[in-house]
Task: inverse folding
C-alpha cells in the first residue's frame, strides 16, 4: 500500500468521474517504465491505419516507423521467458488456448536478467524491479541523457507553462510530496512535454491553452483491463517465478477488439480486484495460491475527456459504451472457456476495471480543430512547445503502447533538433 501511494498519483489510484475505471498513473522518475509489465510490441497495420486516418499523419505507417522501432529496440534488452521457467499460470494459459483452438504467442519483455535460475519471483515487478532487470528509462535512456548534459530535477510538479516571444516559461512546485513546496520558475528556448496523457493535458488546460486548442484533453483512451480468475483444486502458484509469459495472438480476438494476457499480481492488488466483502471476500482470498489469472484488455472505442473542475481539480471522464462493454464480454467469455477447459472449479470475473495505458488528450494530427500537436510534434500555434509521449496518440491501438512511445520520441527528437537548429 505504501509503495503504491509513492509510485502513483492520487495516493495509489485515481477514479474516473463515474468511478467505472481505476486509473493507474505513475508518478516516479521514469514514469510507467518503472512500474509497467515491460511488454514491448510494435503496432500492426490495424492500429497504424486507424492512427493515420484519424490524424492525417502519413508517417504513422509500418514502413515509415520501422527505422525508429529498430532504434528503440536496439536501446533495450528484449527477451522471452525461457520455456523451463514458465509457471503454473502460464501452463493454464497455454493449455486453455490449445484446447479451445485459440492462437497465442510468447511475450517479448524488456528485461535483461530476471535471475530465475536463482529462484527469483517477479511478483514485485509491478512495484519496480529490485534487480534492475527491467529496462526502465531509469537504467536505459536517462543515464545516457545525463552523459549528454541533462540535469534531472525530481520532486517537481509543474503547473504552468507559457510561451513568451523567443522563450518558454515553466512554473511549478519543488519539494517532497506531503510537504509545503516552494515555487520556482524555469525558462528555456524550447520545452518538450513528457507528462503523459493526463499530465500534459492537465498542464496545458491549467495554463489556458484550452481556448485555442479545442481538441485539448479529448480523445483520451485507456485500454480498460479486467483480471479474471479460475479457481483450481490444485495449487497454481501463479505468484512464483516469472510474472507472465504469454499473450493472445488470435486474429479473431483482434477483430473483436480485445486481447488476453497471462498475468498475476500480489495479494493486495488481487484483493482489490476480488468481488465480495468481509468473510466472503476473506474466504476467496484464502484461495490465492489456487488462482489462475488471465487479463482481458479492451481496445476502447469511446473516447474520454480530461477536464479541470471549477476549482482546477482534475476530472477524468471516461465511460465504456455498449461497444466497449461487448468487447470486455467477448474477452471474458474466452477466458471462461480457457479456465473451464483446464478444469477450474469456479471462474471469478474481477469487477474493477483498470485504466493503465493512458493515451491521448494531445492527439497528433494535421487539423488544429481536431488535434493538439502537429506532425512535427509541435503544439498547433506554437513554435517552441513540443510533445512526444502517449498524450499524442489519436486512438486506442489495442496493443501495448510503450515501444511505440519510444519510437515516436526518437522520431520527434529529429524534428525538434532540426527546428532548434
Ligand atoms: C501497471 C502498468 C503496467 C503497464 N504495462 C505495460 C506494458 O507491459 N507494455 C506497455 O507497452 N505499456 C505498459 N503500460 C503503459 C506504459 O507504461 C505507459 O503507456 C507509458 O509509460 C506512458 O509513457 P509516457 O512517457 O507517455 O508517460 P509516463 O510514463 O506516465 O510518464 C509521465 C511522467 O511525467 C510525470 N508528470 C506528469 N505530470 C507532471 C507535472 N505536472 N510535473 C512534473 N512531472 C509530471 C509523471 O509523474 C511521470 O513520471 C503499463 C502501465 C502500468 C501503469
Result:
Amino acid at each position: 500500500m505504501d509503495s503504491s501511494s509513492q509510485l502513483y498519483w492520487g495516493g495509489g489510484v485515481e477514479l474516473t468521474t463515474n468511478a467505472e475505471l481505476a486509473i493507474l498513473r505513475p508518478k516516479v522518475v521514469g514514469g510507467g517504465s518503472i512500474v509497467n509489465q515491460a511488454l514491448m510490441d510494435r503496432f500492426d497495420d490495424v492500429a497504424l491505419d486507424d492512427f493515420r486516418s484519424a490524424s492525417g499523419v502519413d508517417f504513422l505507417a509500418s514502413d515509415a516507423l520501422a527505422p525508429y522501432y529498430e532504434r528503440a529496440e536496439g536501446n533495450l534488452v528484449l527477451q522471452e521467458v525461457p520455456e523451463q521457467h514458465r509457471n503454473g499460470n502460464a501452463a493454464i494459459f497455454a493449455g486453455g488456448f490449445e484446447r479451445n483452438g485459440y492462437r497465442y504467442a510468447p511475450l517479448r519483455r524488456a528485461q535483461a536478467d530476471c535471475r530465475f535460475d536463482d529462484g527469483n519471483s517477479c511478483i514485485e515487478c509491478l512495484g519496480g524491479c529490485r534487480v534492475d532487470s527491467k529496462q526502465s528509462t531509469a537504467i536505459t535512456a536517462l543515464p545516457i541523457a545525463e552523459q549528454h548534459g541533462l540535469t534531472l530535477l525530481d520532486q517537481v510538479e509543474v503547473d504552468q507553462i507559457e510561451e513568451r516571444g523567443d522563450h518558454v516559461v515553466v512554473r511549478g512546485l519543488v519539494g517532497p510530496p506531503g510537504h509545503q513546496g516552494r515555487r520556482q520558475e524555469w525558462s528555456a528556448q524550447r520545452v518538450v512535454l513528457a507528462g503523459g496523457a493526463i499530465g500534459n493535458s492537465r498542464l496545458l488546460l491549467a495554463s489556458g491553452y484550452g481556448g485555442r486548442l479545442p481538441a485539448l484533453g479529448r480523445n483520451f483512451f485507456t485500454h480498460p483491463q479486467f483480471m479474471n480468475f479460475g479457481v483450481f483444486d490444485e495449487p497454481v502458484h501463479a505468484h512464483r517465478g516469472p510474472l507472465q509469459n504469454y499473450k493472445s495472438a488470435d486474429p479473431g480476438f483482434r477483430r473483436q477488439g480485445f486481447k488476453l494476457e497471462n498475468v498475476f499480481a500480489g495479494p493486495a492488488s488481487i484483493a482489490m480486484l476480488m468481488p465480495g466483502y468481509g468473510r466472503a471476500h476473506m474466504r476467496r482470498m484464502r484461495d490465492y495460491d489456487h488462482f489462475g489469472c488471465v487479463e482481458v484488455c479492451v481496445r476502447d472505442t469511446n473516447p474520454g475527456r480530461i477536464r479541470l473542475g471549477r476549482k482546477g481539480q482534475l476530472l477524468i471522464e471516461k465511460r465504456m459504451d455498449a461497444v466497449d462493454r461487448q468487447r470486455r464480454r467477448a474477452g471474458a467469455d474466452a477466458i471462461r472457456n480457457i479456465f473451464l477447459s483446464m478444469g477450474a472449479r469456479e471462474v471469478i470475473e474481477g469487477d474493477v476495471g483498470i485504466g493503465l495505458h493512458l493515451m491521448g488528450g494531445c492527439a497528433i494530427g494535421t487539423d488544429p480543430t481536431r488535434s493538439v500537436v502537429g506532425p512535427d510534434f509541435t503544439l498547433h500555434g506554437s513554435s517552441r512547445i513540443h510533445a512526444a509521449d502517449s498524450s499524442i496518440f489519436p486512438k486506442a491501438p489495442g496493443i501495448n503502447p510503450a515501444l511505440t512511445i519510444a519510437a515516436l520520441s526518437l522520431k520527434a527528437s529529429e524534428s525538434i533538433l532540426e527546428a532548434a537548429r
Q: What stands out?
A: The two ends are 47 Å apart (CA to CA). Residues 322-341 form the longest helix (20 residues).
